[in-house]
Structure formats: C-alpha cells, structure tokens
C-alpha cells in the first residue's frame, strides 16, 4: 500500500508505522495551494472508521470556506 492515498472528495491519507507496531493515519486535503490537516488517529482496525472519515470531511468543508 502507498504511503499516501486518496480517500475521495479531495481527502487524502498519509500512513505511518509507529515504533510500538501501531499504525497512525493523518488525513488532509489540498486547497488553493495549501495543505489542511483535518484529523489524525491510531488505527485499531483494518478499515478506516466511518466516524473518523465523517469528522475529517466536516472539518475539510469548514476550512475550505
């Protein structure tokens, strides 16, 4: 899997493996030449939780205004 991948609707994910064998995710978007970081979390399941995606998308919409 790539280190960075699109999640749809302009939202992107950066993957990071931590020393403790845990996996972290940072969700961001690009708007008008700037990067907006909207959410970061430690993954506990294989699939990205819907609540985390919803939160990131809401924040992205707020920051784009």
Topology:
Layout: E1 4-8, E2 11-17, E3 23-31, E4 34-43, H1 50-64
Antiparallel strand pairs: 1-2, 2-3, 3-4
- Determine the mean pLDDT: 93
Which outline best applies? globular
- Strand order in the largest sheet: 1-2-3-4
Order of helices and strands: EEEEH
- Proportion of helical residues: 10-25%
Unreliable spans are: none
Overall SS class? alpha+beta
Distance between the termini: 32 Å
Tell me what you see in this structure.
Strand 3 and strand 4 form a beta hairpin. The protein is globular, with a radius of gyration of 12 Å. Strands 1-2-3-4 form a four-stranded antiparallel sheet, covered by helices on one side. The longest helix has 15 residues, at 50-64. It is built from one helix and four strands. It has 65 residues and is an alpha+beta fold. The protein has one helix spanning 50-64, and strands at residues 4-8, 11-17, 23-31, 34-43. The model has no long low-confidence stretch (mean pLDDT 93).
